[in-house]
Design brief:
Strand order of the largest sheet: 5-1-2-6
Radius of gyration: 37 Å
Helix content: 25-40%
Number of domains: 2
Order of helices and strands: EEEEEEHHHHEEEEHEE
Structural class: alpha+beta
CATH class of the largest domain: Mainly Beta
Distance between the termini: 83 Å
CATH topology of the largest domain: Immunoglobulin-like
CATH architecture of the largest domain: Sandwich
Number of helices: 5
Shape: elongated
């Protein structure tokens, strides 16, 4: 038996057992029109050949899902609402699963980054995992042990003068030395600028990537007894800078 959509003319092939589904109501997969299939049953196709013949068994569920996407439940016949609500719940569960997966991946990446940044603390409290991380680092060429902090870095010489090329700017030359007995990480240099009253004019922090030459391997750290010369440029608005303070972070 065949039934035809009254709106677009698409023809569907039906079987007797399918007519009991939703009391004979079907949703057209082509135009989303909901109609009574029993009222348009025919043993033969309509004189004008249809554009396509679809199996209701194959398209009923997808048709209802499509109707849900564009229609409110108020526009769906009561006999179809149970099926529509069931499909809607299925769609929502699928979306929740996708978002939950994305959230878990993002949280895992964040925890991994935090753990790597605090790996010294992690290894002290959970030493059993260090061998596994060490083997992983051997494969991906990462550095497991970070050089100690800059506690043993000292400022052994400094010179601050007006910049020879730029107005309202200062040129700072400084020499740093590692007085410790082990490799030390290159510090963040903090330079504080003060006026004649001792009030802060400005504070600037320089990362190792900003003051070290590109030929220096930052990850290797600063070996014991080594000294380096750095050149810093600092703005001196209104030419009020009178004193300076160096610190290492």
């Amino acid at each position: 038996m065949l039934t035809q959509c009254p709106q677009c003319g698409t023809v569907y092939r039906l079987y007797a057992e399918q007519l009991s589904v939703a009391r004979g109501f079907v949703t057209c997969a082509a135009c989303e029109c909901i109609f009574d299939a029993l009222a348009r049953l025919a043993d033969e196709a309509a004189p004008a050949p249809p554009a396509s013949v679809m199996s209701v068994e194959q398209t009923l569920e997808s048709s209802v899902a499509s109707a849900v996407a564009s229609r409110s439940l108020a526009n769906v016949p009561a006999v179809l609402r149970d099926d529509v609500e069931r499909l809607l719940r299925k769609q929502h569960r699928g979306l929740r699963t996708v978002w939950l997966t994305v959230a878990l991946l993002a949280a895992s990446m964040l925890l991994t980054q935090i753990g790597w940044a605090k790996r010294g603390w992690v290894f002290d409290h959970y030493p059993a995992i260090k061998p596994h991380v060490s083997r992983l680092c051997d494969r991906v060429a990462c550095r497991l042990d970070r050089p100690p902090s800059a506690a043993h870095i000292e400022l052994v010489a400094r010179d601050v003068r007006e910049h020879p090329e730029y107005a309202h700017a200062l040129l700072v030359n400084a020499t740093l030395a590692n007085r410790g007995e082990s490799v030390s990480g290159y510090p963040v240099i903090q330079l504080g600028v003060y006026d004649r009253n001792g009030s802060v004019v400005g504070i600037r922090r320089f990362l190792p990537t900003e003051y070290l030459d590109q030929s220096i391997n930052i990850n290797a750290g600063m070996s014991p007894g080594r000294s380096i010369h750095v050149v810093l440029e600092v703005a001196n608005a209104n030419d009020v800078a009178e004193s300076f303070e160096f610190s290492f972070l």
